[in-house]
Amino acid sequence: MSGRQGGKAKPLKKAKKPQRELDEEDKAHLEKLKSQKKAAQDMASKLGKGPLAGGGIKKSGKK
């Protein structure tokens, strides 16, 4: 126990991973994922903000 040392010790920083080179196949895959994500966002914006599931069992106030 030395002096004012208290609490957790700070974790050491990890070394950064080197950026790997992307070949044509990887680039095409990433582009496909981007286009799918954009299409999903477009569809969501077109649908608007309404209830996704409709109906179901409706209960009346009577017993």
Q: What topology does this entry show?
A:
Elements: H1 24-47
Low-confidence stretches: none
Rg is 27 Å
CA(first)-CA(last) distance: 72 Å
Shape: flat
Q: Tell me roughly what share of residues is in helical segments.
A: 25-40%
Order of helices and strands: H
Number of strands: 0
Please summarize the sheet with the most strands. Answer: none
- Beta-strand share of residues: under 5%
- Average pLDDT across residues? 79
Structural class: mainly alpha
Query: How many individual helices?
Result: 1
Organism: Pichia kudriavzevii (Yeast)
Protein name: Translation machinery-associated protein 7
InterPro entries: TMA7
Biased composition (Basic and acidic residues): 18-34
Task: Kindly describe this structure.
- The protein has 63 residues and is mainly α.
- The chain is 38% helix and 0% strand.
- The chain has one helix and no strands.
Task: List descriptors.
single chain; 63 residues; mainly alpha; 1 helix; 38% helix; 0% strand; flat; TMA7
